[in-house]
């Protein structure tokens, strides 16, 4: 069962902790209860801790070093009296920012007095880092601690990082306070070093900070959690194939881990076993499985390696690079051919000194050319450019590789192609060493897209924009890619597009644009018309307002412009509305005691904004508090009450009874206030409240709450009992209260009759001789208020002489 004694809740564990009976009564426990309407019971049941009572006797609070690990915030298996204890309370009580609770902790082991603690404010908003999650091994890891109130910049928070690894990160002192929303509401740590021996899940505990009023924060455990990843991915095995003077490095069979970030390509002309100190020639996306390295030279040995990098930058720097040597190149003169005028011929060049077998003559060699549409292909003869050069080309023989859209033609060195075909030329020497090059047929022009920095206002098919808009283009091409984009304004000469541009004047403008791909295909020019509007609306007129409670209600006269879109409201020069206001009224929350200046602007469909309207100035008046408890008219019997209600956030609320101050309390951020221990006296009590805002404005008095107090009668004095034969006569002194209604008699904790007794003494009959009975008496007044119990008297009825046994 639960017995309620004021605000303290006591739990009876009599059946579960009989092992304490030799020292303690059956209701022994360690318990906590908050003095707040939204707190929950937070008692610690000592049933699992059979020796806890003895330990508390001998060790005090140190006895809580016993398996209470659910609330062990710092991982030391000890429920400490400060940090862990407060953490336990903070996870049981629901607290608003800036709200403070009182709680009481009692030990019921026959010793010690109750200890009263104040739970610090829950000031922490969130914790962020300058890296994502997970993070790799870095030396410049920083934490940003955000608070919801202004903090004392002379007090650094205590920031502790708990690691699963062998080492624990050290958070240096000397961080910086910054002002983001409020003054000194953000703390940034110095650089923190994260090393491989800290790998695993880490969490951040924050405590010790104080706000600018000197109130300490509630310690927050696991305010932030992140993972330190120190395991690099495995490096891929690579294959190398050659095209012209380039090599294609591929790793198609590589199975990447989930956290792969990118690949880095290393190419050197000297052997290496680690990439430390080397600079990669390229970094490619994690989805890529091939890379072409070009500008290679013949008869030079190259060494290539591909390094896998995970999302946080971990790499395995030790590698075995793949070695390769190019003895010659076979190259087409272009990567893309567009068949301009029906036949864009290709020149083929073969560079291989080993083919110069006769230094006294100009020699010829044959290569094979095929396409996706002509897999049979044709044989083309390449002629040496001069005696003993070792360079063979179709240009030297006056022929080139030609393309046909309908059929192959060996005699004229034409192969059949279609848009998007890949053409391939191949040469294999006597040692079966193959050289290859490829190109793509591109006959499709690119497609260009027009973009503006904002959305046009479209009316009757016309595009309207402000002068501030900028314009740009993007283009796509299926095969060869974009070579250039160009544009023209109002039929001027075309210019290359390199960056966004603006139109220079109001009125109608025509923009033309087109693009060319790398193969030389031109897109047909497109046009778009833009009407530039740079004339803002007139300022709104007749701005006025009134205060209702803690809110300003503004109103103004509607603008008449046909392209009006809405309005913005400015308070002290700062816009307060998120979305554009389409009505001619707006309400804004205020703080009493502060002067506010309001203006309104009009905005048209292309976001031209007017000048400010007339200014509306108001000194905000205070709002009277509202008392919600106790409820007026409720008759009370106790001389002490708790007054609760609502008021302006952060205001100081003073409570009065019959015009006499009973103390002050501070309203929370949600406007709730509560003051306990308010004294009332017999008769009628008029309770009122007055609030002083954070800007010093004193509110009107609240509505009066009238509470009648009729004190309960005194417990009857002089209780006596006279036993008889199966009867007991109970008597007591008569109470002196003027509104006394009578008495109630309880036998063995049960009332004998609900009919009130108006006289004394009283005779209890039909009892069992020799059985003990316990009696207590209460007095009751005309309002039904019942006194406390008298002390208990125990009596046994006795038989008369005629009943004695011989």
What does this structure look like?
The protein has 2 helices and 59 strands. The protein is an all-beta fold and 806 residues long. 29% of the residues are buried. The N terminus is likely disordered.
List keywords for this structure.
single chain; 806 residues; mainly beta; six-stranded mixed beta sheet; 2 helices; elongated; disordered N terminus
What topology does this entry show?
Elements: E1 2-5, E2 8-11, E3 30-34, H1 52-59, H2 83-90, E4 101-107, E5 115-119, E6 124-129, E7 143-147, E8 158-163, E9 176-178, E10 186-188, E11 200-207, E12 220-228, E13 239-243, E14 246-250, E15 260-268, E16 282-285, E17 290-293, E18 301-310, E19 322-325, E20 329-332, E21 336-337, E22 348-351, E23 364-371, E24 374-384, E25 391-393, E26 402-404, E27 414-416, E28 422-428, E29 434-441, E30 447-452, E31 457-459, E32 462-465, E33 470-476, E34 482-489, E35 495-496, E36 501-502, E37 507-517, E38 526-532, E39 541-548, E40 551-557, E41 564-571, E42 574-575, E43 585-589, E44 595-604, E45 616-619, E46 626-629, E47 640-646, E48 652-657, E49 660-666, E50 672-679, E51 683-692, E52 705-709, E53 720-723, E54 728-731, E55 740-747, E56 750-751, E57 762-764, E58 773-781, E59 793-795
Parallel strand pairs: 21-29, 26-27, 32-38
Antiparallel strand pairs: 1-2, 3-4, 4-5, 6-7, 7-10, 8-11, 9-10, 11-12, 13-14, 14-17, 15-16, 15-18, 18-19, 20-22, 22-25, 23-24, 23-28, 24-25, 28-29, 30-33, 31-32, 33-36, 34-35, 34-37, 37-38, 39-40, 40-43, 41-42, 41-44, 44-45, 46-47, 47-50, 48-49, 48-51, 51-52, 53-54, 54-57, 55-56, 55-58, 58-59
